[in-house]
Amino acid sequence: DTTGTLGLVTDNGDGTFGYDPNGAFEALAAGEQATDSFTYTVDDGQGGSDTATVTVAITGQNDAPVAMDDSYDTAGNTTVADNLLANDSDPDSTDVLEVSAVQGSAAAVGTTIALASGAEVTVGQNGDFTYNANGAFDGLLRDMAAVDTFTYTVSDGNGGLDTASVGIVVNADQDSDGVADIEDNAVFVFNPSQYDSDGDGYGNIIDADFDNDRVIGSADAAYFVGAFGTTDPHADLDGDGVVGSGDAALFVSLFGQPLGASAFDFIV
């Protein structure tokens, strides 16, 4: 009788049996023990029978931790801080995870190291980390972004290891307001302080993908028609017949910034 039995029991029909824990005891750490049981009945063919219980002792083995890749967005030199172990796990419920290496080096844990990009990162044994672009991406033009990466290794303290990658998307922030240019330079709404109009705790964001189809194309250009009557407006924005300060002022009111060069990444 396998009622209440956690593992899988196979009756071989000749008095022998097979037992498979079936993953039911993965939470046991190395050396931890648990038991599972089932009963069987024998009879002598003459009406006599008896029932016995079989108890199986299970000893846990170490299972490796699982380190999950992490990704973050930041603007300019704004520092990123979080805990890298927050989304990592271990099948062994009593194992305590720690960071054992950064960029493959155990000595880098708990110290500030420079990445190949010139940015700096500090990762503690408990998973807390800070990332500082350190001016490495100050040369990014408006609406451009760069991706920086580093790795960390997780240890369960019992020989189990796993390594994950951390990606940091650094967005250009030419006005150094801590908000990426791609977010704070709105086309139709002058919003230099990223006003939180809906009260959700996040500043307003407007980008060139007006119809939110993840493609910047003719459908988005149609939005310009509503504002200017054309997708390619003349420099005489205010229509007074003269290209001058009035047009520059209108440009500022629409774009939230003075006339100047602009650059962007176009991905197809």
From TrEMBL:
SUPFAM superfamilies: TSP type-3 repeat (SSF103647)
GO molecular function, one term: calcium ion binding
Residues that span the membrane, as ranges: none
Family annotation (InterPro entries): Ig-like_fold (IPR013783), TSP_type-3_rpt (IPR028974), VCBS_dom (IPR010221)
Pfam family, one: Big_9
UniProt-listed Gene3D superfamilies: Immunoglobulins (2.60.40.10), TSP type-3 repeat (4.10.1080.10)
Protein name: Tandem-95 repeat protein
